[in-house]
Amino acid sequence: MKEALKKRTKLFAHNCIKITSLLPNSYLANHIKGQLIRCSTSVAANYRATCIVQSKASFIAKISIVIEEVDESNFWLEFISDENLIEKEKIEFLMKESAELTAIFMASRKTASTNNQ
Hints:
By secondary structure, this protein is an all-alpha fold. It is 85% helix and 0% strand. It has helices spanning 2-20, 27-50, 56-82, 88-116. The longest helix has 29 residues, at 88-116.
């Protein structure tokens, strides 16, 4: 499962980066590009870090960062859609993926927190 999620989060980051190339060249779009690239790649990098932590507390802290970053990625994707910067059909799969990843990581955190008590 860890390896599958490593691949999935890395693919999510790659796809978010690719989507940013479709954004127009404007101040707003350039800001969104940077933010989406930063938070989506952080999802993948921080998930990898959860796989090597040495304690439950460290895992919970790291997975919480992953949840925040994937939720922020979802925010920027929604923002792109709301502003009609890219056709919604081209980013729906990423919005769905970010929602699924959020659910997976929230469930992992809940399990770890419950087992930590």
